[in-house]
Specification:
This protein is an alpha+beta fold. It has a domain of 99 residues. It is built from six helices and three strands, in the order H-H-H-E-E-H-H-H-E. It has a three-stranded antiparallel beta sheet. A hairpin with a 2-residue loop joins strand 1 and strand 2. Helix 2 packs antiparallel against helix 3. The chain is rod-shaped and about 95 Å long. The mean pLDDT is 78.
C-alpha cells in the first residue's frame, strides 16, 4: 500500500468505534426506559388487583344472608391499608343490584396514562372527586 493510501485510511476505525458506542448507548437507554415502564405498569396492576380484591370482599360481605353493617364497615376501614388512600363506597344500582367502587391515590404515571383513563366508568367518575389523581375500579353485584 502506498503512503498516500495509508493517509486516507487514518481515523476511519476510530470513527466506526465511536458510532458503534453511540448506538450501544442509545440501545442501553432504551432498555432502561423499557424496564422502568414495565415496573410502573406492574405496580399499577398490583394496586388494581388489590382494589379488585377489596371490592370483591365487600360484595361477598353484602351478599351474606342477614349481614349487618359490621363486616362492610370493617372492609371500608381496611381498604385504606390495602391500597394507598383507598376509599370504598357502595351504591344501589336499582333493584337488588349494587355497585362496590374502590378508588385510590394513583401514581403520577398512572394518573397521566391511558391505564387510569380506562377505569373511568360511570361509578368511578362519581366516586372520585379529582379524577386525575385517583384510580378507580367498580364491581357490580346482586344482594
Amino acid at each position: 500500500m502506498s503512503r498516500a493510501a495509508e493517509r486516507g485510511v487514518r481515523g476511519s476505525t476510530l470513527l466506526e468505534v465511536a458510532i458503534a458506542l453511540g448506538v450501544m448507548a442509545m440501545c442501553g437507554l432504551g432498555l432502561m426506559s423499557t424496564q422502568l415502564g414495565l415496573t410502573r405498569h406492574a405496580q399499577f396492576a398490583a394496586a388494581r388487583g388489590r382494589a379488585a380484591f377489596a371490592a370483591d370482599a365487600i360484595a361477598e360481605s353484602a351478599r351474606v344472608a342477614g349481614a349487618t353493617g359490621a363486616p362492610i364497615d370493617r372492609w371500608k376501614a381496611l381498604t385504606a391499608s390495602v391500597v394507598p388512600e383507598g376509599r370504598l363506597t357502595t351504591s344501589s344500582a336499582g333493584g337488588e343490584a349494587s355497585i362496590a367502587s374502590v378508588s385510590w391515590a394513583a401514581t403520577p404515571f398512572a394518573a397521566a396514562s391511558a391505564l387510569a383513563a380506562a377505569s373511568r366508568v360511570a361509578p368511578c367518575v362519581d366516586a372520585t372527586a379529582d379524577a386525575t389523581a385517583r384510580a378507580c375500579i367498580a364491581l357490580a353485584f346482586l344482594r
